[in-house]
Amino acid sequence: MNCSIAPGKILLFGEHFVVKGKPALGLAVSMYVHVCVEPGSWVIYSRQLGFINHDSKHRSLFNTLIEKIISEYSSVQPLNIYIDSELPIASGMGSSAAVAVATTHAILSFMGVEFTKEEVWKIAHEAEKTVHYKPSGVDTTLATYGGFLYYRQGSFEKLDLKLPEGTSLIIVNSRVGRSTGEVVKDVLSRYEHLGEIGELIYSAAEKIVEKALDALRKNDAETLGELMLVNHGLLWAMGASSEICDKIVYDLLKAGALGGKISGAGRGGVIIGLINNQELPRARELLSMKNHEFYFVHPDYQGVRSVE
Ligand code: MEV
User: Fold this and answer.
1) CA-wise closest residue to 231 among 22, 15, 9, 10
2) Catalytic residue positions, numbered
3) pLDDT of residue 147
4) What's the CATH class of domain 167-297?
5) Predicted local distance difference test score (pLDDT) of residue 167
6) The pTM is what?
7) For ligand 1, mutation pick of 20, 184, 261 (most atoms within 8 Å of CB)
8) What ranges make up the beta strands (E) of the chain?
9) Nearest atom (ligand 1) to Cα of 16
10) Which is the closest atom of ligand 1 to the Cα of 14?
């Protein structure tokens, strides 16, 4: 049996504004999709979704990547694929990309062929297209390479950064589903309607990313937390937040976080916070008391890899 894992991701800064050419900063985090393959008969089983049969809407992702592997390498003997994901589904954490990346990696490792991460990325990106209309490639890139990713207008740059020393990230799942397309559409229509004010908000979002990179380089957790809050405020102004998202941001602050914001499309999905490690016990207690589903995570710097 060959097993691989690929990390999920969060957006630290810049979601939505990125749609109009502003920069964004993504980060791969220590929550993983685990995929194991072994000789079988193309049975695909997900611990969370059950059997992914031929009539399942999730099957096309696997069919595409298997076809791609066959066309790029050689025929593959029938395998069974087992998937176990720590990522909340449809919450903006890139679970489908991480599944595609980990599955491709596990199959190529099983085949014993030589391959690079770039080849895994290409195959997974094709498969991801069957799930998301015109995927930006951010989720696939973070699942493949890990670390911090600066992106702007379709170009990606992996940055050699670390989270400020002694801090962790908290991810709270709002457990509210939403349509990314719908939120993006509403935000864009507010942007058009606001005219010059919209321009100013988007320019401020761009400055936030620049200042955040500076804060990361200077190991300045307080500024980073503050910038997360300001970024959340701008997303709120553009209509991407919701009562539950705002409430979670306040709960994170009460729990000792230095800042918090939505991550991804907003109006649900996950909310992220930055916190000093000494505050973690208090945060655990407070967030549990409020019945939140939350995770303490750190950056994943490695991306997809084989595991025992
Ligand atoms: C969604 O994860 C991120 C958005 O900026 C949309 C996009 O960039 O395609 C809201």
Assistant:
1) 15
2) 139
3) 98
4) alpha beta
5) 98
6) 0.96
7) 184
8) 2-13, 24-39, 44-46, 50-51, 79-85, 148-152, 155-159, 167-173, 259-263, 270-276, 293-297, 305-307
9) 5
10) 5
The model's confidence at residue 249, banded by pLDDT at 50, 70 and 90, is: very high
Please check whether residue 191 is in contact with residue 19, taking contact to mean a CB–CB distance below 8 angstroms: no
Domain boundaries, the chain: 2-160, 167-297
Tens digit of each residue's pLDDT (9 = 90 or more) over 139-171? 999 999 999 999 998 899 999 999 999 999 999
Say if ligand 1 is within 6 A of residue 136 CB.
yes
- The verdict on the CB of residue 18 being under 6 Å from ligand 1 is yes
State how far Cα 267 lies from the chain centre.
16
Predicted pLDDT at 149: 98
- For ligand 1, atom 3: residue with the closest CA: 264
* Residue 157, burial from CB neighbour count under 10 angstroms (0-12, 13-18, 19+): exposed
CATH class as words, domain 2-160: alpha beta
